[in-house]
Amino acid sequence: MPGFLVRFLLTIQDFYLLTGRAIRNIFRKPHYTDDIILQMDSIGVGSLLIVVLTGFFSGAVMTLQLARALARWGQKGQVGTAVSITLVRELGPALTALMVAGRNSSGMASELGSMKVTEQIDAMRALGTDPIQKLVTPRLIATCVVLPLLTIIADFVGMFGGYVVAVLLVDVQGRLYWSTAWQALEWNDLTQGLLKPFVFAFVVALVGCYYGLRATGGTQGVGRATTQAVVMASVLIFVLTFFLTRIFTSGLLASTP
Predict the structure, then answer these.
(1) Contact 97, 237 (CB under 8 A)
(2) Listed residue (13, 15, 3) closest to 211, CA to CA
């Protein structure tokens, strides 16, 4: 078997082992509640500004582009429908996860990588502390809690950004925009919008922690692990977006007569 394929399979195996141990530790004591709260503050509050800015301008840009396209068929008033569905189903969860991954997957990888190369993690093991339970599980729990909340904020701010552009630049009445935006959303859309960020949270947290824990080679290795964490997390978010969307659309198509 080629060497690169062996390394690839070993990487997948190690990642799944880390995932299994991190999930198992959720139900085991100690839970390190203080660490979870600190990570929620770092990941959630720390990412709030970039998520708000990304959401606002995403909604604004979509309104400009979609209004131009819909105006050809005399449906410019339906721009709220297109913006709300696009944000809640796809762009809101994906863009929020990408922003959080760029900020926090890299942070986790660099933090844990620095601890790894300075042998702090080995010292934790020597003192009888499980590094996975102390370092990985709190980050996983915190990300699973705050990422769906950040996605909800990004969706609403994105719709508000679309509203501002629709009223000021596209000449669409504000009441028409909001009525079409809310009426377009169904339970399936809300389910997608909340399930996707929950799945993405596993990617953001576990990929960052995985590359941080396997960092080697001093400060250069920490930088390399940080880059790998951001790249891999971003790619996996797009891949999972496709498969999750495929699952939901398959259910809708199957139920359509």
Answers:
(1) yes
(2) 15
> 26 by DSSP, 3-state: which?
coil
- Tell me the C-alpha to C-alpha distance, in Å, between residue 76 and each of 41, 158, 170: 41, 18, 8
Among residues 181, 170, 140, the alpha carbon closest in space to that of 63 is found at 170
Q: Which residue, among 18, 225, 11, has the nearest Cα to 109 in the 3D structure?
A: 225
pLDDT in tens, the chain (257 residues): 666 677 778 888 888 899 999 999 888 888 888 999 999 999 999 999 999 999 999 999 988 888 888 877 777 778 888 889 989 988 899 999 999 999 999 999 999 999 888 888 888 888 888 889 999 999 999 999 999 999 999 999 999 999 999 888 888 888 888 888 888 888 888 888 889 999 999 999 999 999 998 888 778 888 889 999 999 999 999 999 999 888 887 755 444 44
Tokens of 182: 């809310």
Cβ atoms of residues 213 and 116 within 8 Å: yes
What is the DSSP code (8-state) at residue 102?
A: I
Where in the chain are the domains? 31-243
What is 76-96 written as a DSSP string? GGGHHHHHHHHIIIIIHHHHH
**Nearest one of 223, 59, 60, 208 to 142, comparing CA atoms:** 208
Distance CA 34, CA 23 (A): 18
